[in-house]
Amino acid sequence: MIKIEINDIDGKLNSKQVVSKSTGEILTFREQVAYIYNGGVYPEKFIIQLDKDASPYAAGFYTLDDSSFTVGDFGLLKIKSIKLIPISNK
Question: What are the alphabetically sorted keywords of the record (predicted)?
Answer without folding.
Answer: DNA replication, DNA-binding
